[in-house]
Amino acid sequence: MLSRTLLLAGRLASAATSQQSVSTASRAVEPLNSLLHKCSFATNSTDIFNVHKDTPENNASITFDFTEANYKIVKDIVARYPPNYKASAIIPVLDVAQQQNGGWLSLAAMNRVAKFLDMAPIRVYEVATFYTMFNRTKIGKYHVLICGTTPCRLQGAQGIEEAVTKHLGIHIGQTTPDGIFTLGEMECMGACVNAPMVAIADYTKGVEGFEYTYYEDLTPSDIVSILDTIKKGGKPKPGSQHRSKAEPAGAVVGDKWVPKEGTMTLSGPPRQPYCRDLNA
Ligand SMILES: *[C@@H]1O[C@H](CO)[C@@H](O)[C@H](O)[C@H]1NC(C)=O
Ligand SMILES: *[C@@H]1O[C@H](CO)[C@@H](O)[C@H](O)[C@H]1NC(C)=O
Ligand SMILES: CC(=O)N[C@H]1CO[C@H](CO)[C@@H](O)[C@@H]1O
Ligand code: FES
């Protein structure tokens, strides 16, 4: 009995080791690059190492200061917090800096925020590197953010991404050569009821004119024409492209909008609740 148990344990152990060694070996041969490819977009860049690299547009010799109007805005923000908790204002203040700076936070912008809030610069970098809505590399005039979370995926976000990357000729994380669009991916932006959706941040008009617009119920051709309209200087219709709000009027199915007809997803009238036959 004892020997049988030992034999079994031995077999199990060797099965486990051989399985493990196969997967360890295949992991070891996989180059770092292909692992990087599998990372989500926010980490698939030099930012994955969270290192600042000097470039002609972002280095310590460049200066940044708030404009007079924006200085008033950040002072109003700080006034909402007790004087000994100025650092609590860091996120809204960085947001103003990013909007003024064309959508990204340069080293100089982060240092200016640190000085403004009496913080060590490293504590500002920590926040700016942690949140993916803060961008530390130069981006295009419009930041196109495709929602990539489950409800949007189920409603065709992949088709939206394919249409956009094909139309603009860039991948997620890249900027068009004319500097107009940068493509990004975001997680759920709370508009799943009108999935799939895309948010576009407009950095062309500074802090006063900053716009962050949702475009919802998109088919691939909807998003392509939205991008074309923006490029021509027009203003596409915001929100749902096919209904007035989120009323049950239909849904995007594949590459087209299908208006509601009868029971939509049900194939027949719903069943009555189960009732036991009391006379049986
Ligand atoms: C820093 O920026 C200045 C001004 O754009 C530029 O002339 C200089 O070459 C940059 N330095 C580095 C190391 O990129
Ligand atoms: C991720 O980075 C690699 C290496 O730079 C690049 O080839 C690839 O296109 C990037 N993937 C995305 C989704 O941007
Ligand atoms: C820090 C950060 O999130 N940087 C991102 C800025 O935006 C571009 C394009 O969307 C990304 O490639 C960067 O990773
Ligand atoms: S999943 Fe796209 S908005 Fe929620």
From TrEMBL:
CDD domains: TRX_Fd_NuoE. It holds the Pfam family 2Fe-2S_thioredx. PROSITE patterns: COMPLEX1_24K. Residues 234-243 have a biased composition (Basic residues). It comes from the Eukaryota. Residues 234-280 are annotated as: Disordered. Its cofactor is [2Fe-2S] cluster. One of its GO terms (molecular function) is 2 iron, 2 sulfur cluster binding. GO terms for cellular component: catalytic complex; membrane protein complex; mitochondrial inner membrane. GO terms for biological process: mitochondrial electron transport, NADH to ubiquinone. Residues 1-18 form the signal peptide. Keywords: 2Fe-2S, Iron, Iron-sulfur, Metal-binding, NAD, Signal, Translocase. InterPro entries: NuoE-like, NuoE_dom, NuoE_N, Thioredoxin-like_sf. PANTHER family: NADH DEHYDROGENASE [UBIQUINONE] FLAVOPROTEIN 2, MITOCHONDRIAL (PTHR10371:SF3), NADH DEHYDROGENASE UBIQUINONE FLAVOPROTEIN 2, MITOCHONDRIAL (PTHR10371). NCBIfam families: nuoE_fam. Belongs to the complex I 24 kDa subunit family. This is NADH:ubiquinone oxidoreductase 24 kDa subunit.
